[in-house]
Design goal:
The structure is a single chain. The chain is of the alpha/beta class. 45% of the residues lie in helices and 20% in strands. It is built from five helices and five strands; from the N terminus they run E-H-E-H-E-H-E-H-E-H. The chain has a five-stranded parallel beta sheet with strand order 2-1-3-4-5, sandwiched between helices.
Amino acid sequence: MKVQNLRIIIADSSLAINLKLKIQLEKLGCQVVATTDNAFRLQYLVEKLKPDFIILDTGLLNPAAEKYLKKSQIPILFTTCYGVDELLFSLFEKSNTVGYLVKPIDRFSLYSSIRGAINFHHNYQGGKQVEL
């Protein structure tokens, strides 16, 4: 799977960050199928749109979202202002979390993290590596 073909949902508590990430991802050739600033809406969007990848702000996590994400098979790249904490570490162990980025996020970091995350996810599930 190519990074350029990914269907992505962005979920961040800041609409400005959602827009910035959307622009960066579209410049990389990704298709942003939805953005949201709400964890409950994220669940609805994931079920409806079936994205290849989710970029999720740790600030949106709540117990219901955590439970849902632990069952999800979609790779998740977390964004945070704070670095790794106990909550994020526990999600790494119990979900399809494939990485995290500390804000602010530049396009190179975003690209390399997505590429690495997809390669990890596909290799872990026996799939193919991302093509350049």
